[in-house]
Amino acid sequence: MIKTITIDIINDKALKLIKDLELLQLIRVRSEDTQYGPHQIQRYKGAMSKQPVDDIDQQLNDLRNGWE
């Protein structure tokens, strides 16, 4: 069973305890800033060309109708 929670560390002693739990392979610590860093945003910025809303709606309708 894997659950994801977010906690706020208010004392360095708590951080040491969390690191110890990770060493025991009871938890995995992930940093939020590495998950969605600015370098990842820049990688995909401008990947989609601007289109009128009507064109996008038509493309979505075509995709939906393709499944029927």
Topology of this protein?
Blueprint: H1 12-23, H2 32-35, H3 38-44, H4 53-66
Provide a descriptive summary of the structure in words.
The chain has 68 residues and is mainly alpha-helical. 54% of the residues lie in helices and 0% in strands. The protein has four helices and no strands. The protein has helices at residues 12-23, 32-35, 38-44, 53-66. It is elongated. The relative contact order is 0.06.
Strand count: 0
- What level of helicity do the residues show? 40-55%
- Report strand %: under 5%
Helix-strand makeup class = mainly alpha
What is the element string, with H for helices and E for strands? HHHH
Shape: elongated
Major sheet description: none
Radius of gyration: 22 Å
Terminus-to-terminus distance: 36 Å
Arithmetic mean pLDDT: 83
List its traits.
68 residues
Brief synopsis:
It contains 4 helices and no strands. With 68 residues, the protein is mainly alpha-helical.
